[in-house]
């Protein structure tokens, strides 16, 4: 359902594009979306694709926004937020940056209380994203509803009570699409090595991910039971999973997610040091 939320994006890169692609013409008209980014080529592409208005530096349009989405790299956030200060009033500030703590954002924004910190993922582009979000106590019920409406327009939302859990969410679902693509790449490589064409390997791998994920989503049984059902004793899956276990694949994946979460925490600590 369409509403008339005025949404400004600070940063028009990969993740902003995924969100705008899911929102424009669905939750709100493209004309209600404003994007600030110094990269003129990126702005031109967004304007052509989604009908958004654009600016290369923070401008007066920001003062009219209901929601300002912070979508720049964590390392740039403090400097970028300083440029926004003259335009900040009652808007809800919705950060999607990995690591950056809401308390630091609030301090950089002169004590602004209307902040939601979130972690979306790129399938937002096709309306199949999932976002973890946490609201500062200063966020009104209407603002939280606006944030939820934006995030739900591009997929599912999981609201958290504890901001510390955003780093684990980042490790699981924020970065998660990259792990899935990595796994698909490995399946493509193996398929090719065994004589299938790149097209066939790609089709087989992607359809398998979609089918297995949907099966897991629809099932009331644990994922481990679904896995066991594919694994005939002494059969092909058994051979593959035995090989993965021997190579420590699961352990390596678990370790990798811990590394992602720790990096999130570290990004927050690095940026929050004043
Ligand atoms: N890419 C992803 O899958 C996800 C990214 N995020 C978060 O989203 C944020 C952006 O990440 P990406 O879109 O991947 O990065 P990106 O590098 O694609 O986009 C960042 C954009 O910020 C722009 N920018 C630089 N200085 C600026 C300024 N002063 N004012 C306005 N814009 C400026 C850049 O020109 C660029 O277009 C990061 O904080 C990241 O942690 C969150 C979830 C998933
Ligand atoms: O890699 C990153 O830092 C960002 C956050 C989650 C996905 N991409």
UniProtKB/TrEMBL annotation:
Any single Gene Ontology cellular-component annotation: cytoplasm
Binding residue positions for NADP(+): 10-15, 71-74
Listed GO biological process terms: L-proline biosynthetic process
Location of the protein in the cell: Cytoplasm
Enzyme class: oxidoreductase
InterPro entries: 6-PGluconate_DH-like_C_sf, NAD(P)-bd_dom_sf, P5C_Rdtase_cat_N, P5CR-like_CS, P5CR_dimer, Pyrroline-COOH_reductase
Pyrroline-5-carboxylate reductase catalytic N-terminal domain: residues covered: 6-99
Top-level division of the source organism's lineage: Bacteria
Catalytic activity: L-proline + NAD(+) = (S)-1-pyrroline-5-carboxylate + NADH + 2 H(+); L-proline + NADP(+) = (S)-1-pyrroline-5-carboxylate + NADPH + 2 H(+)
Residues that span the membrane, as ranges: none
EC number, UniProt record: 1.5.1.2
Domain Pyrroline-5-carboxylate reductase dimerisation, first and last residues per copy: 163-267
A single GO molecular function term of this UniProt record: pyrroline-5-carboxylate reductase activity
Pathway: Amino-acid biosynthesis; L-proline biosynthesis; L-proline from L-glutamate 5-semialdehyde: step 1/1
Main subcellular localisation: cytoplasm
Pfam family, one: P5CR_dimer
Signal peptide range in chain numbering: none
Keywords tagged on the record: Amino-acid biosynthesis, Cytoplasm, NADP, Oxidoreductase, Proline biosynthesis
Similarity comment text for this entry: Belongs to the pyrroline-5-carboxylate reductase family.
UniProt function note: Catalyzes the reduction of 1-pyrroline-5-carboxylate (PCA) to L-proline.
Listed HAMAP family: P5C_reductase
Name the UniProt record assigns to this protein: Pyrroline-5-carboxylate reductase
Species the sequence originates in: Noviherbaspirillum sedimenti
């Amino acid at each position: 359902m369409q509403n008339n939320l005025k949404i400004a994006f600070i940063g028009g890169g990969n993740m902003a594009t995924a969100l705008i692609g899911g929102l424009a013409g669905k939750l709100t008209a493209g004309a209600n979306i404003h994007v600030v980014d110094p990269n003129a080529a990126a702005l031109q592409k967004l304007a052509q694709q989604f009908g958004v208005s654009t600016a290369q530096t923070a401008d007066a349009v920001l003062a009219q926004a209901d929601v300002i989405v912070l979508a720049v790299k964590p390392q740039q956030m403090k400097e970028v937020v300083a440029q926004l200060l003259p335009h900040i009033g009652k808007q809800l500030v919705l950060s999607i940056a990995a690591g950056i703590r809401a308390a630091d954002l609030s301090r950089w924004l002169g004590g602004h209380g209307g902040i939601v910190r979130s972690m979306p993922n790129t399938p937002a582009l096709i309306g199949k994203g999932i976002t973890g979000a946490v609201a500062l106590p200063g966020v009104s019920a209407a603002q939280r509803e606006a944030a939820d409406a934006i995030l739900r327009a591009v997929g599912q939302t999981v609201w958290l009570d504890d901001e510390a859990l955003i780093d684990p969410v980042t490790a699981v679902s924020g970065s998660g699409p990259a792990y899935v693509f990595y796994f698909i790449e490995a399946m493509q490589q193996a398929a090719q090595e065994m004589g299938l064409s790149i097209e066939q390997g790609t089709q087989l791998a992607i359809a398998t991910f979609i089918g297995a994920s949907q099966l897991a989503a629809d099932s009331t049984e644990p994922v481990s039971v679904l896995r066991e059902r594919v694994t005939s004793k002494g059969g092909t899956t058994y051979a593959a999973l035995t090989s993965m276990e021997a190579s420590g694949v699961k352990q390596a994946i678990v370790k990798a997610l811990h590394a992602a979460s720790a990096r999130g925490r570290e990004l927050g600590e690095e940026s929050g040091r004043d």
